[in-house]
Design a protein that fits this description.
The chain is of the alpha/beta class. The protein has one domain: Alpha-Beta Horseshoe (pyruvate-formate lyase- activating enzyme). The chain contains 4 helices and 3 strands. The chain has a 3-stranded parallel beta sheet, covered by helices on one side. It is elongated and about 70 Å long.
């Protein structure tokens, strides 16, 4: 699918997300296998340390393992960045910040402006 996409957009890159799980998929042999897949495509790899949450048996890879995984991939010519998950400091797993991030879109601002106008109209009518 990625190769088909790139045929229609020759200057495009594909970004892949790879969540690192301690002892499961952070082995350097897996990094080598990943490079074999990605090397054929103009791509970038985002390495995401797993953000544990209550009730999971998975753990985040250790920092040295994350760095070694990244370095192994980059040494073979694939761009790899380590993403720090938002919410790591408050034990928020993926999707747990949804209600905590302010919506700064134009639509949200317009909605809030309408609400404020409605409240003003209600107050003026009551007076």
């Amino acid at each position: 699918a990625c190769e088909r996409y790139l045929r229609t957009r020759p200057r495009a890159n594909v970004t892949f997300e790879y969540t690192l799980l301690k002892g499961i998929n952070d082995d350097l042999k897996l990094a080598d296998r990943l490079v074999k897949l990605l090397r054929r495509l103009p791509s970038k790899l985002n390495l995401i340390p797993f953000n544990p949450f209550p009730g999971t048996s998975y753990e985040c890879s250790d920092e040295p393992a994350i760095r070694a995984f990244q370095e192994r991939i980059m040494a073979q010519g694939v761009i790899a960045t380590v993403r720090r998950t938002r919410g790591q400091d408050i034990d928020a797993a993926c999707g747990q910040l949804v209600g905590q991030v302010a919506d700064r879109t134009r639509r949200q601002r317009e909605h809030l402006a309408r609400l404020a106008q409605d409240e003003l109209t209600t107050v003026e009518s009551a007076a």
